[in-house]
Specification:
alpha/beta; C-N_Hydrolase; six-stranded mixed beta sheet; single chain; globular; hydrolase activity; seven-stranded mixed beta sheet; Nitrilase/N-carbamoyl-D-aminoacid amidohydrolase; 2 domains
Length: 298
């Protein structure tokens, strides 16, 4: 299956222009034979939360963009999927669910049906300050293969990535939010996750420019594999990076350095040791508290 990753330059406060740009590239991807297109984080405006230090401004943006699903942004995404006659992975977007706000990735069919919804599990310190809530469970998407879905900060957590791998994901699909500095660090993290889990990662970044046309943040769009490490990367803005999954899986199936066997058994053993250590720590604390009380009574 051919997948198209949209590496977009998103201009602040220019939703309409950003949507039209995406529509054009989705049409191009469809004509090339793509069956799935992946959009960047917080499309159609882009994720600026790690760019601005002003939490007040970010909170204002969250209030303006948060909406129930379905909503205005969801309708825009559904229209892109149906007009392009293509599966779409979009997000995360800001989902308002009662008093809570989640960063939620949507999986939309060519018929406009929301066939999957993933609330980001791993949230950053900045997300917490801005009032973003954490999701609770992993999500998979089954098309030609079984794909694990992640979003943004999930890439920094070995645990959620391992859960997706143990859930028989053939590859991981996700988004990377924009950063004001050192955006390429995420590539090294993705390479580590690829080698840890033995599966490729298909990740969409973004470029954010302000109203004056100055680039204020970015993240790379790229694909990893267990042998090539960086298998493909978008070089230009407002382009589609294509990856054929059959070829990618063949390349990743080769014997690789650092392959680990019996990982489930190892993890189970580590979890037992962690529980044992926590139990011992609690016992030690209780003993110290008891000893202090005895001294006070004396």
């Amino acid at each position: 299956m051919l997948i198209g990753l949209l590496h977009l330059k998103l201009k602040e406060a220019s939703k309409k222009a950003n949507v039209e740009k995406a529509k054009k590239l989705i049409k191009e991807a469809k004509e090339r034979g793509a069956k799935l297109v992946i959009l960047p984080s917080l499309f159609p405006v882009g994720n600026i939360f790690e760019i601005y230090e002003n939490d007040k401004k970010s909170k204002s943006i969250i209030r303006n963009l948060s909406e129930k699903i379905p909503g205005t942004i969801t309708d825009t995404l559904i229209n892109l999927a149906t007009e392009g006659e293509i599966h779409l992975v979009a997000g995360p977007i800001l989902e308002q669910a009662g008093p809570k706000v989640f960063l939620t990735t949507l999986i939309i069919s060519p018929q406009g049906e929301i066939i999957g919804k993933y609330r980001k599990v791993i949230i950053s310190e900045k997300d917490v300050r801005l009032g973003i809530s954490s999701g609770k469970e992993p999500v998979f998407m089954s098309l030609d293969k079984r794909y694990g879905i992640l979003a943004e900060d999930d890439i920094f957590s070995p645990e959620i990535n391992r859960v997706l791998a143990l859930g028989n994901a053939s590859a991981i699909i996700g988004s990377i939010k924009a950063y004001a500095r050192s955006p390429d660090i995420v590539k090294y993290v993705a390479i580590a996750r690829t080698l840890e889990n033995g599966i490729p990662y298909i990740l969409v970044g973004e470029v954010i420019e302000d109203e004056n046309g100055e680039v204020i943040g970015s993240s790379p769009t790229f694909v990893t594999s267990t042998n090539s490490l960086i298998y493909k990367q978008a070089e230009d803005e407002d382009t589609v990076l294509y990856v054929e999954t059959t070829v990618l899986m063949q390349e990743s199936s080769k014997e690789r350095i650092g392959k680990i066997n019996n990982i489930e058994t190892i993890l189970q053993g580590l979890c037992k040791n962690i529980k044992k250590m926590k139990s011992m720590e609690r016992k030690k604390i209780n003993q110290e508290d008891s000893h202090e009380k005895e001294e006070e009574e004396e």
